[in-house]
What does this fold into?
Amino acid sequence: QKEVEQDPGPLSVPEGAIVSLNCTYSNSAFQYFMWYRQYSRKGPELLMYTYSSGNKEDGRFTAQVDKSSKYISLFIRDSQPSDSATYLCARSLEYGNKLVFGAGTILRVKS
Amino acid sequence: DTGVSQNPRHKITKRGQNVTFRCDPISEHNRLYWYRQTLGQGPEFLTYFQNEAQLEKSRLLSDRFSAERPKGSFSTLEIQRTEQGDSAMYLCASSWGARQNYGYTFGSGTRLTVV
It folds into this structure.
């Protein structure tokens, strides 16, 4: 079993839709959780991070962490074509430590 | 500060040749990481430095790979006797060892193609 599981997609939605991206993980020791966005042929760009269960909101993005079920989600409201990218979830055992990534979910937002 | 810089952006090399990549981190960041990413996969951790000390190496980092960070500034990743399986995107990231600001930032990567 991979440490971090993520549906590769692709997920195709119309512009303006609410997008839900999900990850599960197996190691309950993970403390920090991140979502990265990666455009084609670019490095990953940090969208959000959290180290606790619950929700964290930043503009159109909401990250949700449920440590009891080892499940994290990223919601994108009012999705735009510019949101089309690969979304990577990542975990870290502690701050500043190595990250363990999922394989990424490809998102396509159609105008 | 323009972020994490990696050079070259692309490298095509023949099997068996040696290659070296360079990473310049964000200047105030004391930690520097190397990852490798293949098509359709997330980045995989290779190694990381705190200042000039190499603190952890993945088992993915075979003895053909070596990384350095002299004086705790830029870092180089060298691959000796390249193999076709080394073809990947090599990503560098840097962070500051403080909890107040999560600045784990990636560069744009070096894409290596071994022919």
User: Anything to note?
Assistant: The two ends of chain B are 36 Å apart (CA to CA). Chain B touches chain A through 28 residues (CB under 8 Å).
